[in-house]
Give the backbone structure.
Amino acid sequence: MAFLGENCIFANIFSPETFLTMKELALKYGCNPNQKPSRIYMDNDASLPIEVLGGRPGYINFLDALNGWQLVSELKAATGLPAATSFKHVSPAGAAVGLPLDDTLRKIYFCDDLALPLSPIAAAYARARGADRMSSYGDFIALSDTCDEATALLIKREVSDGVIAPDFTPEALQILQEKRKGTYCILKVDVNYRPEPIERKQVYGVTFEQGRNEINLADDALFENRPTVNKEIPEAARRDLMIALITLKYTQSNSVCYVKDGQAIGIGAGQQSRIHCTRLAGQKADIWWLRQHPKVMNLPFVEKIRRADRDNTIDIYISEDYDDVLAEGAWQQFFTERPEPLTREEKKAWIAQNTGVALGSDAFFPFGDNIERAHRSGVAYVAQAGGSVRDDHVIETCDKYGIAMAFTGVRLFHH
């Protein structure tokens, strides 16, 4: 058998009907090829809550799929809007709800040429995939709603390992089953499935047991404690803070998330230092915003440049390493003519125009330096647990910039 990506196998396997009552599924290997045997199974004599409609998903694929499905299900329940996420290595690279896209977002997400209008679920995936295209390369997709033809056409053109959704229209299923010569991983999830209230895992032969994290992050009471001078959090900002917190609930800790207009624009995951999370996510948010700069949107790419090469070229052009794509002998590979660099002054001025960003953290901010960094990326609203011995400094820094902050009293570590 041949392999694609990190853990998805080219293989024809059982018919979908086989999985309706299946309690166990053998996998080629675990996280790595040397980790055998590997399987997923139910230990309570129940059936697996998924059907495999295409491909043969692997161990990491299932981790991404099942975490991603929980995220989008919770986003849909909290906002009432279709939701999508783009997962990589058990953390979301992007997450969004299905708000309409303006012409600028359609262009930077490279979906302005789609033959069909974007449905709400298609818009949600375009946002989730488009916010951080470098990290989303080879993603596993989760959709809260039925995958329709427009969404399938978006997925078809991207490098992706698979998708999980509650259902697929016949047109969408045909498109996806033809992707990657019929080996694309397609999972249909049972929307009525509810896991047991206690979850378990083993480490070094020791079994860990805990109650599932069933905290309701759509509860208005979470945002009532606002210790800052500015206490105004408009409805759209509260929605964005809620999206940030729900996204963080399924992100490897430590983590922070910047959200704007119903989509994550920067996720900093799995860092030991919270300020490093804030910087990483802030850098991603800045790159998302810089991709909307006229110089970037009008880059003169050569015809038929590969999507991955275009994404990487944009990322380098925006960075301090722009000479790697603009030097003589290099630019000719990507552009029809040499673009002018995007100067540091131009970048700073453009980033300063980004406003109204919401920021969530999976635990308290220990110092005001996180707020200083967040402010530079347009953050105006913050939701965090509170409880640091330096809460006073964090509040003072928010007041310095007129930022409204809510102490939720909720920690969202995820490991």
Q: What stands out?
A: The radius of gyration is 22 Å. The CA atoms of residues 61 and 272 lie 25 Å apart. The longest strand covers residues 91-97.
